[in-house]
Amino acid sequence: MPYLRRQSWSSRAGLAQVEQFLDAILGDNEGILVLARGVCGEINEKGSYRFRGGLRHRCFDWPNERQEAIGWVITHRKAEDIYVIPNLRHARTSKTEHGKSGRFVALLTDPWVNSALPPAG
Questions:
Q1: Mean pLDDT of 111-117
Q2: Within the chain, how many helices (H) and strands (E) appear?
Q3: I need a surface site. Which of 3, 9, 85, 94 has the fewest CB within 10 A?
């Protein structure tokens, strides 16, 4: 899922970034938007990233609940990792089989991953 980095947003710029990001990937298409928040993220003993508090999903009717979705991201971004499933759904679930066709694939990148990997070659 695309990763919205909470550390890089000021409160004013964050709102504009969230609006622009969601509008760019979803436009005026209709369906269920699934967002998720990672609670208590940490790098575990195996070196992978996980959430002690789990990954909690929230569904919004897009575009009717656009403002509520943006508000949810703004509310949770300071303390938790926020993820977006880039394709709308037919049902209020994150399961793949309920996804509508879309233009995007999910990719997770994080700067700490590159610093934790040995040099290539």
A1: 46
A2: 3, 6
A3: 3
Q: How far apart (Å, rounded) are the C-alpha atoms in residues 96 and 64?
A: 22
Each residue's pLDDT tens digit, 50-85: 777 778 899 999 999 999 999 999 888 877 888 888
The secondary structure of 1-16 as a DSSP string is --EE-GGG--HHHHHH
pLDDT band at 34 (very low <50, low <70, confident <90, very high): very high
Tokens standing for residue 40: 């208590």
**Beta strand ranges found along the chain (DSSP E):** 3-4, 31-38, 41-43, 49-51, 55-62, 81-84
| Closest by Cα among 36, 35, 34 to 92 | 34
Q: Measure the CA–CA gap between 93 and 67, rounded to whole angstroms.
A: 20
Cα distances (angstroms) measured from residue 60 to each of 36, 51, 66, 88, 90:
11, 23, 8, 10, 11
Cα 79 to Cα 109: distance, rounded to the nearest angstrom: 19
DSSP 3-state assignment of 63?
coil
Q: Spell out the residues 6+ positions from residue 47 whose beta carbon is closer than 8 angstroms to its own.
A: 116
Can you give the C-alpha Rg of the chain in angstroms?
15
